[in-house]
TrEMBL record:
Residues 1-11 have a biased composition (Basic residues). It comes from Sorghum bicolor (Sorghum). Residues 1-26 are annotated as: Disordered. Residues 201-282, 380-442, 629-705, 754-788 form a coiled coil. Belongs to the SMC family. SMC5 subfamily. Keywords: Coiled coil. This is Structural maintenance of chromosomes protein 5. Residues 34-234 form the Rad50/SbcC-type AAA domain. One of its GO terms (molecular function) is ATP hydrolysis activity.
Amino acid sequence: MAAPRAAKRPKFASGEAPPQRGEDDYVPGNIVEIELFNFMTYDHLVCCPGPRLNLVVGPNGSGKSSLVCAIALGLAGDPNILGRASSVGAFVKRGEVAGHVKISLRGETPDDKICVTRKIDTKNKSEWLLNGATVPKKEVIDVIKKFNIQVNNLTQFLPQDRVSEFAKLSPIQLLEETEKAVGDPDLPVQHRQLVERSKELKALEVAITQKEKTLNNLKALNAEQEKDVERVRLRDNLLRKAQLMKKKLPWLKFDMMRKEFVEVIQEKENTAKQEMEEAARVWEDSKGPIDKLKKHKATHTSNIKKISSQINENMDKRQKVMDHDLRLNAELKATFDEIDDLKKQEKSRQQRILKTKEDLAAAEKDLEDLQPYELPKAEMTQLRDQIARINVEIKNLKAERDAMESQLAREEESMRRCSDRLKEMESKNSKLLQALRSAGADKIIEAYHWVQANKKNFREEVYGPVLLEVNVQDKLHATYLEDHVPNYIWKSFITLDASDRDYIVRETKQYGIPVLNYLVREGTKRRPLNITPEMRQLGIYSRLDQVFQAPDTVKDVLISQAGLDDSYIGTDETHRRADEVSKLGICDFWTPDNHYRWSKSRYSGYMSAFVDAVRPSRLFKSNLDVSCIEELQLQKENHVKNIEGMREALKTLHRKQRQLEDEEAIIHKQKEEIINAMKYHKKTREEIQRRVDMKRQMLRNISREEDVESSTRKLVDQVAKLNDERFHAMIKLKDLLTEAVALKWSHTEKNMASIELDTKIWEMEKDVKKLEKEASQKARNYEDCKRITQEHRRRLSIAKQNAESIAVITKDLKKEFEAV
């Protein structure tokens, strides 16, 4: 008989009976009491749920969700599971510093109660108490797990903000979450193990089926291959014999190459070597007679060089004697010419004295006839006064021009600063457009450039994007304004004409940028700011519509679309006394850390409060003042006009200065003409006086010339001396010519003998070169034979290595080779 099948799983891991309801109808772990203090909308609340289904009914904002949040946080739940706030500090009632949640759970008996208290504060700190004693959070979690309370399980605890998440769970996920919630902790584990075992079983079944198919295929293949075994054995025998022949073939080739090498190649190399040595010996023997003739020729060449040196020395001596004779002949001719000149000079001397006296008299007469020249002092004084006056005017013009240039430089510097400031503003404009693109308006820059390029096509003024039109001086106010105004408005364009709106929407459809059309209503006025003393006491000092500058149209759109005139601005004092602000009828206000809003229920009239943390500004990081841009543009235009006027004035001053300088140049030229006339008269007088003095000196020099007869006698004696020197030079030249003829004869004889020796040496060298060529040919033949021998040795070695690589000769292998 088969053994009874074991149960799938025990009902409870501990083996104990499931928890039963007591006499009070509660199950252990049920919530019997909830106490809230300064928690969300409650100042203090005590609630006692029943043992069965509990239903909490009330209008919006009455605190139903607050009870759910208190249960989750009081039972060690994380704030994130509620889908509201990420920190516990956000659950403290507004205006309070701390609060607590106390949840009482039923124990094993009706009298046994377990009290879990969680104290929280605005600094996100939590303190846990268990039955009044401070304990760590882990101990509280252990108590919660003991009763199988799973706050994180959506099938057991489902906040309203996580309903959509619960709806997205698949059936399998719902089953798993339900198993976790029923109470048995082993049930999910056993479920996962069952799924894994099912997968493993299916995989094993598939593997067994595949292996059976493989076994059948292998058996059929084995039966077919047994027929081929005999053919394979026969083939192996033939292959073994062929393999032996392959081994023997390289050794047969090696033996044939070795026989050829020994019989043919080495014999050729020995013969070539003997022929080379014989040719080298004959060539060496034929060079001895040539060396003897060359030594004899060298002796003749040395003697020829000595004779040539003596001939050159003789030629140098003869050249010197001839040069000396030519010099004496030239001196002799010059002496005769000088004698003739002396005779002619005496004749012309008297004529020169007469001519010099006549020239002296003419020069003295010219000097007497020259009239004295007086400088016109009155005219010179007048010219100097005119030059001084013009210089003063030029100096004044230069001072005026320098002042004008300094003013122009200052004006240009101001315009440069203005231009730089405008560029800086434009760069801020780009940063704002980039901020809008980062915030989700991907095509805002293209839309902005399109609107700027098509402004001429609009009927009315077009503003936008709105972010570029708004200027906020205070960064905190900019944060308030950005958080308060809907995001789509910042990237919107505003038109004043419906046709402009339609045109922009049609042309910029691909950019996806909103366009608002503003209708100007006559008689509408903005609500003035009225801060009462009560508001000031609570720290309220302004309103959102008062903290920024923008064109009137843009400001009206922001006020009408975002209700800026209903949102007030306060301080930290306003934050501390937020509950009192609502009593003044203010339902929307900002503090440095939070944004407070009150809304009234349409059903019950109950007021609900909302507090949001102030998020840091992202769009207004690089805000700019549009009015400042217009003012800078106006300043730049004024600077440009001033600069153009100053440059025209500078050109006029420059023309005046040039006219005065030209006038000064003319007066200077007149003055220089008078001075040059005076210098010319003085120079003329000096030249005539110098001519008179020169003629007088010339007359004295002619009178002091020496006597002609004594000079002639001296020159005759000099002629006789020069003739004697020429005679001795000719005698020496004759002796040198005789010696030169003898040396030339000897040089010719020696040179003819040297030529004969050269002819004999040339003929013998010709024969020697022929023998040298034969010896070189024999040497080349021998080198070729050596190279062929080395090549055959290399090939023989390669053949042996190839044969050994295929098979090494052993005794057994040698016997097999002989048997084949």
